[in-house]
Amino acid sequence: MRLLVRNGTLVTEQGLIAADLLCADGRIRALVDRGEPQPADEHVDATGQLVFPGFIDPHVHSRDPGSTHKETFAHSTLGALCGGTTTVLEMPNAIPAVTDVATFESRRREHAGRAWVDFGLWGMALGPANLHEVVRLHRAGAVAVKFFWGYALDKETKGLVYDFAAAPPDSLLLPPENGEVLEMFREVASYGGVLAAHCEDRHILARSAELLGHPIETYDDLLLARPAVAEATSIAVGAQFARVTGCRFHVVHMASAAGARVVREARAAGAPVTAETCPQYLTLTDRDAERLGPAIKVYPPVRSQADQDALWAAVNDGTISSVGSDHAPHLVEEKMLGFGSAPAGGLGVETLAPLMVDAMARGRISATRLAEVLSTSTAKLYGLWPRKGTIRPGADADLTLVDPSGSCHISNDRMHALNPVTTWDGWNLRGRVTASVLGGAPAMKDSEPVGERRGRFVAADHDGRRT
Ligand SMILES: [Zn+2]
Predict the structure, then answer these.
(1) Do the Cβ atoms of 5 and 382 come closer than 8 Å?
(2) How far is the CA of 59 from the centre of ligand 1 (A)?
(3) Distance, CA of 458 to CA of 467 (rounded, Å)
(4) pLDDT for 413-442, tens place per residue?
(5) What is the CATH number of domain 54-385+407-425?
């Protein structure tokens, strides 16, 4: 099958190029002069549109298997597709968690028939409990290993336990202490992998909650109980470990100015540290808490306007190289339990691209930088480049088309999630994701799928590549 994308402006690693794009057999074949006749079975008209390398969401918790009352992999990947994302990287903390190769392989098989977009899989790093399994996850094609720093794991269900002080200690795998964390960095460095972490120092969190003196009732209480210094401290420790071991260390869902400062300094000093942030930190502030209620609750929490401004600066100066959604759905009833008791997390995979395109249309980020943080740099970080993340001959023909002068409206009615309640309900956005191409064929148009579901598993290949 040959597909010609006509009259668009391609967003390439060399900048914007006005050219047609010929795809064949699932791959990009050539950039050709606009209007030059090409033998093609199908055409996509991209007049007036930007043609991006297919967007990648590296941070998706589909709750599947284990919590499929909250979300499923079929729903999250359909949301991804309809929002303009063509590849998702699925986080390892479903139940059971992906802590060994047997679970990795079964997750890969289970998800293969359900995926609306291409997908990669994360592994989970526990410390001593699976220290020598992480290299096997890497060899099996895991994009990276995630370390849920400060969280315990239930021995039986292999599920994450957030508030583990109250749980019976013999039911848990307790979080590793820093000596063991350093050992884990050394192990991941030995095979050239990527160690990503949730960064919030658990001792600072525990003491901050005690000092509050009463249960969390308001959003201000929540911010006092989870101060930015907890994130910055944890990042600083990880950056030191990265520096001495050479391990590539990636900070997921970075949420504070203090965190961004530590990452910037570590990178300037030569430490192999990278960072991700998410649309919730780039579009919301603590002032939205009154309007949204506990729906705004995520970990780390959304903070001040100054934090948001610092994160945008970090996105634009390269301190942050990747933007992911941290799609982490819960039931609406669960989210209504109040700022203290509601679980952290919300929908995101379907709104990732529209919110970032809106930022581009408003001048907060350029088209070329948007291509980097939503595709190219993400693909490089997770061992998917140059198969994904670039518009060049030989790459997978995955494309996201954007009309920068269009507009779109986000509403719960149009979300494809199992529990379709989004923080951004009612927002009117500038710019519009109009269509996507997956594996050389049209896959989405006007926020609905085109054709069959045909997402494929993509194995990471980190060998010989560094970002
Ligand atoms: Zn997450």
Answers:
(1) no
(2) 6
(3) 19
(4) 999 999 999 999 999 999 999 999 999 999
(5) 3.20.20.140
